[in-house]
Design goal:
Blueprint lengths: L2 H11 L8 E6 L2 E6 L4 E5 L5 E6 L4 E6 L2 E3 L5 E10 L4 E5 L2 E4 L6 E11 L4 E11 L6 E11 L4 E10 L3 E10 L4 E10 L4 E10 L4 E11 L4 E10 L3 E11 L4 E10 L4 E10 L3 H8 L5 H13 L1
Parallel strand pairs: 1-5, 1-6, 4-7, 5-8, 6-9, 7-10, 8-11, 9-11, 10-12, 11-13, 12-14, 13-15, 14-16, 15-17, 16-18, 17-19, 18-20, 19-21
Antiparallel strand pairs: 1-2, 3-4
Helix pairs in contact: 2-3
Length: 305
């Protein structure tokens, strides 16, 4: 891998070198590095682009890294990755995509990640997106995540997009069995003329299943954001969605939460708040010696953390 690809890899997966455990690193449309373990196998699909990640039942305290980096202008790809997580597992999965585009043509990565999570398992899934390069071509990412969560299992999902992605549509759909739980945390910042759309739909099918969807977003300059969150309570369950957003400059943000109770014992809540940075917060920091721009940056960074 060249230095640009290594920098992208560090941004989206926190990797300075090859990680321990299982991994598959994809660069410019090809798998360039792969490792498996006794409990985690990675198999190339034969019918389309992508991989199957197979995690054996009982696997504990292991990780899988599957980052994607693009440094070739004009490259477009569609990848399908399926995760088969057995019963009684406790694993961390780190994905993400970084695009460096210094050319005139758009570079685009679309991917569908499908999770089949067994009973009594805990999965932490981290997905980061990052763009760089001074080319006029766009940096486009459209990830889709589809989750089937087994009985008494728990998925923690963290998505992060802070810089450099010109256009993105992120779609997440999940179905939960009895006593299953999902927590999704999104951190998003757009700037320039970027567009970002986040769409979540969760079906709480199981008894005492629960979902918590949390979005923290900042829109600057002339960027646009759309947040859609839909929770369907189809059994005795608990669901909560929350969108907090800071709007700056000439940006535009829409938050559209939707909750549907199809059962008498479904307890569902949605919250949404959009506003500018309070003037007294900026003044307070400026009295400590910060400039107005530094004060704004401090507030934004704290909000996104």
């Amino acid at each position: 891998m060249d230095e640009i690809q290594k920098t992208l890899l560090e941004q989206v997966a926190g990797l300075h070198e090859l990680p321990e455990g299982a991994y598959n690193i994809r660069a410019n449309g090809k798998s360039v590095e792969r490792s498996t373990t006794a409990h985690i196998d990675i198999v190339t699909k034969e019918d389309k682009q992508g991989i199957d990640i197979i995690i054996k039942p009982g696997t504990k305290r292991e990780s899988v890294h599957i980052p994607v980096v693009l440094s070739q202008s004009g490259l477009t790809e569609m990848v399908y990755n399926d995760f088969y997580v057995g019963d009684d597992c406790d694993v961390t999965i780190v994905a993400g995509c970084g695009i460096h585009n210094c050319g005139q043509q758009d570079s685009r990565h679309d991917g569908i990640h499908t999770f089949y999570i067994g009973k009594n398992s805990h999965v932490k899934y981290v997905e980061k997106h990052y763009g760089s390069g001074d080319g006029r071509g766009g940096r486009i990412m459209n990830p889709e995540t589809v989750v089937s969560l087994g009985e008494n299992s728990f998925l923690e999902m963290e998505t992060v997009q802070i810089k450099g992605v010109d256009s993105t549509k992120r779609t997440t759909r999940a179905k939960l069995a009895d006593h299953a739980k999902i927590v999704i945390t999104e951190r998003l910042m757009t700037h320039g003329s970027q567009n970002a759309e986040s769409s979540f739909e969760v079906d709480l099918d199981g008894v005492d299943s629960s979902a918590n969807l949390i979005s923290r977003a900042v829109a600057r300059d002339d960027s646009r954001q759309l947040f859609l969150a839909k929770i369907n309570g189809n059994n005795r369950c608990a669901g909560h969605s929350e969108c907090d957003a800071i709007i700056m400059d000439n940006a535009k943000i829409s938050a559209i939460p939707e909750i549907t109770a199809n059962n008498l014992d479904a307890a569902l809540i949605h919250e949404a708040a959009i506003g500018k940075i309070a003037g007294d917060q900026i003044i307070k920091l400026m009295t400590l010696g910060l400039t107005e721009a530094e004060a704004e940056a401090q507030i934004v960074n704290g909000f996104l953390k």
